Structure formats: C-alpha cells, structure tokens
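Dear colleague,

Thank you for sharing your sequence with our group. We've completed the structure prediction you requested, and as agreed, I am returning the results in plain text so they can be pasted directly into your records. Please verify that the sequence below matches your submission; if there's any discrepancy, let me know and we will rerun it promptly.
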Amino acid sequence: MRRRTTSSLPGSTPQVGFTRLAAPKDAQLGQARVAVQSILLRKKMDARVISAFTRVFRRAMPAHDCLTAHAVFLKRREFIALLGGAAAWPLAARAEQSGLPLVGFLHQGSAGANDKVVGAFLRGLQGAGYENQRNVQLEFRWADGHYDRLGSLAAELVRLRPAVIAAALLPAAEAAKSATTTIPVVFISGSDPIEAGLVASLGRPTSNVTGVSLFSVPLISKRLELLHELVPGGTAVAVLVNPSNPNARSNELAIENAAAVIGLKLAFMSAAAEREFADVFASIAQQRLGAAIVSADGLFASRREQLVALAARHSIPTMYFQREFVDAGGLISYGANSPTMYQQAGSYVGRILKGALPSDLPVMQPIKLELVINLKTAKALGLDVPPTLLARADEVIE
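Please find the predicted structure tokens below.
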C-alpha cells in the first residue's frame, strides 16, 4: 500500500537505446553463419557492406556445411570484432537509406535494469514528435557497469554519424564529450555538470553539450542528515562508493563536510564490480557500523535489487539516491525522479532534431526532490520512523 503526502523539503533551483549490439564472446559459429546469411539476404543492405563481409567470412569458413572450431582460419579476436561490427551495419544502412535521423544512446549501465528510464526517454522523444523506427532510428550502447568500455562504445556511435547522442550517466557523458566536438550530446548526469567539466555554463552551454542534471552528488549531505534523523543512535556510517566513477571524490568531499557538522564518523567502502558487493556489506556488518549510504552511481542503480537484498540480509539501515531502491524494498531514498529527468532529456533530443543548438538549451535541474520511505522495511529493521520525517515524505510505502 502506498500513501502520498505533500513534502515540505525544498527543491533545487532551476539550472537533461538500442540494446547494445555487443560482439558475442563465445557464440556458436553455426549460429553466426545463419546470422550472416540472414544479413546477406536483406534487400536494402548496402552492397559494399555485403561484398566486404562475404569476402572475409568465406576466408574464415571455406566450404564447410557443419562448422567446427577446426573450420575457422580467421583469428578468433578478428572474427569477433568483425561479427560485432557487422551487427551494427544493417541498422545504420537502413537508417541512412530510409532517410531517418539516427540517435545514439550511450549508457554506463545495463539494458534490463533501465527499462523504466529508457521508456521515459522515449516518451520525451514522442512528446517532441519522434517515434522510434517511424521517423527516427535509435541505436543503443550499454557498458553493463564496465566504465572502461565507454570510450570505444562512444567511438562506435560517432562512426555511425548520428544526429545527436544521449549519454547517461557521468562516465558515459564524459566519453561522449571526448568522442566528438561536433555531434550534439545530451547528457543525463547526477553530478554538478560544471564541476564535472561537461559545460562551462548552466544557463547557456557554449559547446556541443547540454543536458539534464539530477544533482544526486550534491544531495549526499542531505541524505546523511535524513539518515541520521531516522537512525539517531548511530555514531558511524558506511559510505558505498564506486572508485571507477569520476564523481567518487566529489561524493566523499560532500559527505565528509556534512558528517563533521553532525558529528558522525564515516567508513568509505569501495566497490567497482558486482562481485565485490557481498564482501562490502559483510564488512559493514562485521564493523558494526550503524547505517549505510549508497552514493550515486550507475552500476549501483543497475544492481539495486542485489544491494537492497544485502542490506536486508545484514540488517543495515541504508539510504539510497533513487526511489527505485525503495520500490525494490530499500529503506529510504532522497533525490530527483529519474524517469522525469530522462523524459526531459528525450525532449531535448527531439528539439535538437528539429534544429535547436545545444547552446540554445540550458542545462535542466530538478525542480522537485522526492523523499520516499518504506515502512515495511523500517519495521523489519526495528526502526520507529519519527512522525516529523513521515510528514515530510512524498511517498510512504506501507
């Protein structure tokens, strides 16, 4: 049961996929041949692409009906690279031949965990008059939490010559900005875009980059205050950060200042991969830290169910940066509504497709922040939520 209330928390002042066609690592070569034959049968595919691919493919598998590893004479790495590149050819060729503008979508997370925000992005595009595969073609790239892949993924999108690239979140935005100085880039970022170097001005960006800022990082100090109000007896708080994220140090500095004012001790816990989560939460429990905060990060957002489950297993009251964690059973969150901000990014992409320049579009900020509390989780943790905190919540999950 959900109950909505009107929040008295101040908002900030005003200031923004196609499933990644990744090269298969261990695909069966028989399946690969079928896929290639299917590609070769596409009537609208560029003839030069067909010819080039056919020549290399025949060199790799000469006159074999039932393919085995012994039938392949092309080096495995070269073949995988070829197959991965070929996967993007048909889509780009069809978009070019049909005259549809191409929009790249680069995300540092994974596709399945971001269906909700992708849907919001597409609604923003639709609001601007664009519908995928009707009058615009989208091409998605997903890093699946591996931030070191973002540079090559951004370069792939740039080679497709899209009309605009949408990039989420900060590491993806930085990769897109580094990959092109001419193609418009619309970012979705939780960091301060000026501090991160994405833009020089919020009101009037001067380069090819604009977008939407969730301002999740600057809000980490407020999250600490709210968590302390909910768990007043704690004297030490664990802070989960991803050292691979460029915003990690900004998160640390912001929360250190807030902790000094409140009088709390902090224990920073690093996790750059999913396999490290279990050890981190086990360490928090072993050190008997009173509570935890999950800092804003795309990897953490895409693995929210696992993080929420670990917090519950070890009975650790945990504050999150997105309400989706609380929807999944987390205790409390404070921040901007992510789908709303992605929808605004989609709207900006639509405006650029219609001829607007990034410099015409000021960086948008959330005008409302959400405080969401899960009473069922609080009860399981043995916490009594103060009435004053409940009164300020935008939504209470009962």
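Summary note from our side: Residues 6-87 have pLDDT under 50 and may be disordered.

Kind regards,
the structure core
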